[in-house]
Amino acid sequence: MQNNNINGVLEKRLCTGCGTCSLICPQGAIKMQDDSEGFKAPIVESEKCNGCGRCKRHCHAIKSTKKYSSKISMCLIAQNKEKKIAKKSASGGAFVGMAIEFLSKYQGIVFGAALCEDMEVKHIYVDNVKELYKLQNSKYVQSNIGRSYEKAKFFLQNNKYVLFSGTPCQIAGLYNFLDESLLEKLYTVDLICHGVPSPGLFKKYIEENENEARRKTKAIKFRVKNPLWTSISSFYMIMIFKGGLPSIRKPSEDVYYNIFSKGLALRECCYTCKYALPDRIGDFTIGDCDSHKFYPHFHPNESNSTIMINSIKAKKIWEESFGKKFDFSELDIRLEEKYNNQLHEPFKRPIERDFIYKEIFQRDWGIISDKYANEQKLSGKIRAYLAILSPSWLVNIWGKRNG
Known about the structure:
Number of domains: 2
Shape: globular
Helix content: 25-40%
Low-confidence stretches: 391-403
Strand content: 15-25%
Number of strands: 14
Mean pLDDT: 89
Order of helices and strands: EHEEHEHHEEHEHEHEEEHEEHEHHHHH
Distance between the termini: 60 Å
């Protein structure tokens, strides 16, 4: 017998899908399975459950996660000093800069989200700089934590340094999974998260595009910087197929990206997220710097990162090591909060959320595309290709001449 409600412990709308309950259950009674919307959710095998309540005690959605961080000691606008690294990053290269130093100087282990060969976003770990590229760039879909918490615990028990990045709820789940005695060499990086659509939606999107292109997907990118010129990171959905030209669309022209950017299909808990606050859960917080226009002399015409340093040990490792990898300047956190909404409130739940997943999985994909994305015209296709190959002034001229 299965129970979708964790034996009455947790309402589905509050679950973040971190999987801590599944990993912590001594009876192995809780499994993480895809729900009707394609999100990972816990299912209880009632015949195995002995009612110990361990899942409830370790659930961060129920139990307030213990604060391991102090008040914000530093808030920075930052840019990686290595231009090649910054160019391959979504914004200012904050995560990869810290990760390289962590791997090189501390021989540590770095965890993060990767778009794997099967086109599923999963949490993995790397132990060398050569594989770090797998964790770079934005992935606008909920990652599958899998057994990453257990692996992090193993490394910490063996006296290894661990840098774990993820959404705030994933960091909270990790803290509630680990014993406090293991936290000395753990460093956490939470992302300024705008909410996550389901892996099920992402999978269907890929399948439909592959059917249309008659090719398998090789890679997907949600952000792009011009590889030849100084540029701001642009929001484009780029699908690279095995053979043939890539598909490049603006968010408004791409059904998945448009649904995500408008917050129409986020996980239910995202609309009431208790971590969308300036008081953060991780040792570090990173994301796009949305108030960068107020710092015109700091790397103009480039995307920059916000780095929030939230704990004493984070401040120490920043001053000893991480900070040497960046150009940085003090950031007015209140101003950044004003322009970066997820630092003070979660995404507001739209009315479309009531029915959108039923539409997605039950209606013809062509109808979904027509409803939730604008048609991409020839001029739009040309502009998209220009955007990733040409200097911004040429793209702007093309845009003015072609509406």
